[in-house]
Amino acid sequence: MRRHLLSAGDLSREDAVLVLDTAEEMRSLADRPIKKLPALRGRTVVNLFFEDSTRTRISFEAAAKRLSADVINFAAKGSSVSKGESLKDTALTLQAMGADAIVVRHHSSGAPHRLASAQWTHGSVINAGDGTHEHPTQALLDAFTMRRHLGDLDGRRVTIVGDVLHSRVARSNALLLSTLGAEVTLVGPPTLLPVGVASWPVHTSYDLDSSIVKSDAVMMLRVQRERMNESFFPSAREYSRRYGLDTRRMALLPDHTLVLHPGPMNRGMEISADVADSTRSVIVEQVSNGVAVRMAVLYLLLSGSNVPIETPVGES
Amino acid sequence: MTSSEPNPLPVLLRGGRPLGGPATDLLLDEGAIAAIGADATSRAGAEVIEVVEADGLVILPGLVDLHTHLREPGREDAETVETGTRAAARGGFTAVHAMANTDPVADTAGVVEQVRRLGQEAGYCDVQPVGAVTVGLQGQRLAEMGAMADSAARVRIFSDDGHCVSDAVLMRRALEYVKAFDGVVAQHAQEPRLTEGAQMNEGPLSGMLGMRGWPAVAEEAIIARDALLAAHVGSRLHVCHVSTAGSVELLRWAKGKGWAITAEVTPHHLLLTDELAATYDPVYKVNPPLRSAADVDALRAGLADGTIDAVATDHAPHPREDKECEWAAAAFGMLGLETALSVVHQSMVDTGLLDWAGVADRMSFRPARIGQLATHGRPLAVGEPANLVLYDAAVSEVVRPQDSASLSRNTPYAGRTLPGRVVATYLRGRCSTAVETVPA
Lengths: 316, 440
Prior knowledge:
CATH architecture of the largest domain in chain B: Alpha-Beta Barrel
Largest interface: A-B, 28 and 24 residues
Number of helices of chain A: 11
CATH class of the largest domain in chain A: Alpha Beta
Radius of gyration of chain B: 21 Å
Strand content of chain B: 15-25%
Oligomer: heterodimer
Order of helices and strands of chain B: EEEHEEEHEHEHEHEEHEHEHEHHEHHEEE
CATH topology of the largest domain in chain B: TIM Barrel
CATH class of the largest domain in chain B: Alpha Beta
Structural class of chain B: alpha/beta
Radius of gyration of chain A: 19 Å
Shape of chain A: globular
Helix content of chain B: 25-40%
Strand content of chain A: 5-15%
Number of strands of chain A: 9
Shape of chain B: globular
Number of strands of chain B: 18
Largest sheet of chain A: 5 strands, parallel
Structural class of chain A: alpha/beta
Number of helices of chain B: 12
């Protein structure tokens, strides 16, 4: 494995499979009476969040704690950053505190790259979502969830629907899923598909109905209602009619097709409550898989193969 | 200091190659080119002079920059007139046009006269201030352009650079108004609504990197509109830092109509592409943004065939903290004065698109004409002002930011090997690059 996880595109197929296999081992821990491994004892993991995301932070925190790491939560919004401390000075501070890994969520695309490449810190940098760029651990947990239900993703068809333009989840999934051999189709109104999307390793479509009928998994992206004020679409209702997953559309899906959503959901907007709560929906499972996947990432980036661990896992 | 004083001793430049042609001798005396060839050699033998061995060096007329940010007054932490003009001299420039986006903005006679005076006091390079088109660069009402034109600074180029004069009526009025004193409006062509929050060239890469795109159409739409406006009212228009293939096509079309339109391109748009944004290193963040390789090719072709008149640096110094941060938080702009000639050497001369006479035309003659500078951009001939640069085209060097004379370090060429080196620059016969000859 590399030292940092900045983009899902950095992962080779071997790397990605190693993470998913390791996550499988980590997940089996959840069924044991003692859910903790000593793998990262004495190591410090900092959750550096410049943007609120309670669910992602808690997931990383739980993952690090189950590996016995010390966890520091640095909510940069409520600290000195709001008084104007720079990313650089924050990084230098964390370096001085001996951070072995920095899990960073930032509103600016590429901020984790800066942190990793600017020599301000020696720790591993894990991208926990940067601007409208990427969210690689979300893609890993999505792939993990799909793999548990569908088996090997090679040749599987995954449709990702909605605000691709602003979605870091869509970018990371497009890269990771195509690395794993899946056939990805991005669906959304033309205003919400990025210029140049034709050069991505994916198909695109403006028509949801024709895309979902042949899908093995459908991933609905969160769409902010405010986007209609920027004229990306005329109204929430029209968006919902054309690109929302409701009961009628769910009936078009093949029996085995999964429904995913990275959360938080806008029920009634991109996904109806019936669909979100249906048996096809693996949305809650995504959350619990998130901890296992993040444990695998932290373990592989930080531990090295010489650290004793009860569960046999792949080498880092 | 008194930079306008001629050098105490005449200077003989021995064996240099004017415009890259055959080697000859040049005698500089009393601030002018006093003799060329055998005449220079023989006169030099008869007088007490300083001899400079220029064997094999290319001699070009002193370069003229139409687009320099000297940051003074207001941002003396980034650059001062003194440090900026020193960098200019080291880059081969004998005249620079100082952009108006200072603090206070150069929108009054007082500010432009101050900037001119600071240039005179520093003495490295002539500083011709550019005046703002609108008060405070706000795009609301016209600045007192007449007062700036009539001032001691004798302003002829007006620009809100950094901001587009996007209001069509205001642009029309500005184009018309400056005709009274033979001025020209230099437009920063950027449709503001299409570029809100824009970070980099809009294309396949911006989508992948998750950065807000700056589409080519935002530049091209304004150029097309302004060309039509200028033609309609019979005014001159200059287009700043053209960056797209489509802009080159539009300029070719407008010039084909016989309209009085000129344009400039920056060195960085002739060499660098948007691929560099994938590093997320804000040293590559610039406005207009670095474009695609196809745009670079079109810009080079446009400069070669004269569709683009001039190379202008858009030298934009920024303090370290404004670049040592995440991309979106960083300032736009990059240094350019000291590397401009080498970048043009690599992108235009080494590629066979321009010879040295062509370089002199695009970096000295034409920009001086656009800026209406009477004593710059003159031929290398007897009786002309001794503004010239000695350039060693045979060497190549690695760019080291710490060696810059600029106060700032935001060069995009750090660590890159560029061809050529400015050996010396002469401003009215005085060497402006040798620190010891410039009185403190």
